Amino acid sequence: MTYHSLWALWFLLPLVLVLVWIFWQRKKKTPTLQFGSVELLKSVAPTLRTRLMHLPNVLKALGLVLVIMALARPQTMNTKVRKNVEGIDIVICLDVSDSMLIEDMKPLNRLEAAKETIGKFIEGRTSDRIGLVVFAGESFTMVPPTLDYQMILQRVGDISSASSAKIKDGTALGVAMANAAGRLKDSQARSRVMIFMTDGENNSGTIDPETGLEIAKGYGIKVYSIGIGKDGPTRIPVYGRDIFGQKVKTYQPFESTVNEDLLNRMASDTGGKYYRATNEGALRKVFNDIDRLEKTKIDVNKYTNYTEEFPPFLIAGLILYLVGLLLGRSWLRRVP
């Protein structure tokens, strides 16, 4: 409960002062009788009227207190909040070629670092539809844009490399971009975003990257491209079986190369931004930056309905004051 006219409560102060003054004056004017002995008076029990002689003043004082509270206009509030959310449709396009198994990022390799960062990014969104496309030598949609974040997180955890998923290895950038753009082409969101992550350059697929870029541009999709890992000679893990059938891991030399010119053009031509992430910390910063740039627009309208609660206080105050006045003029009248 709140008070609309809180200043009215200041009237309680002069009321208290008046009551103190009345008590003091009445105490000074109390009539007295002189007796030679009060032994006989001690045996006289006080009557009900004697016990209630201060009741009229108490009732009138309480009545005035309630009237002052009514003057302060007590109110109850009922607040309703209406949110108008303009979400963003986002498709994350992730390279799962075997080169993503290179172990130069924590917690294990490039792919696991990407999965962990994507998961935290999804957990931070609230009103945006998010989809997931993976690609290697070919591309397929794991999750179309949806608000079911729990399901998306589960599918992110299921992502594996091309060899583990038994799909064609390679890096089909054009096919992947066209696939992701197709998932956003019918979007009604105010903003369509593609987050494109790869650690290689185009070497496969039936659609060249230039065509994929034109498709994305045609649908008004903003591309944030991310080049993962360091360029140069490195080692790629290869899994096989020994003579006893046990799984073993060996390493083969590999030349890691990211086509930065293409990724940069993908971003600049669509109004996005290109990033290079050579370690897991840099990858997290990239997604934090994207999260800051692509914020959901939320308009909040707040409506408050006030209900006046002063009538009960006013009625109770007037009744108490009148009862006190009536009792003081009749049954509990004091003389002098």
What does this structure look like?
It is a single chain. The chain has helices at residues 12-28, 39-42, 48-51, 55-71, 110-123, 149-158, 162-165, 173-184, 209-218, 260-268, 280-293, 310-329; strands at 2-3, 74-86, 88-95, 129-135, 139-146, 191-198, 222-228, 232-241, 247-256, 273-277, 297-308. It has 336 residues and is α/β, with parallel strands linked by helices. It has two domains: 1-22 and 47-81 and 305-336, no CATH class; 88-295, von Willebrand factor, type A domain (Rossmann fold). Helix 5 (110-123) packs antiparallel against helix 6 (149-158) and helix 5 (110-123) runs parallel beside helix 11. The longest helix is centred in the last third of the chain and has 20 residues, at 310-329. The two termini are 44 Å apart.
**Superfamily at the CATH H level of the largest domain?**
von Willebrand factor, type A domain
Strand line-up across the major sheet = 5-4-3-6-7-10
The strand count comes to 11
**CATH-defined architecture of the largest domain:** 3-Layer(aba) Sandwich
Mean of residue pLDDT? 88
- Chain oligomer state: single chain
CATH class of the largest domain: Alpha Beta
CATH topology of the largest domain: Rossmann fold
Number of domains: 2
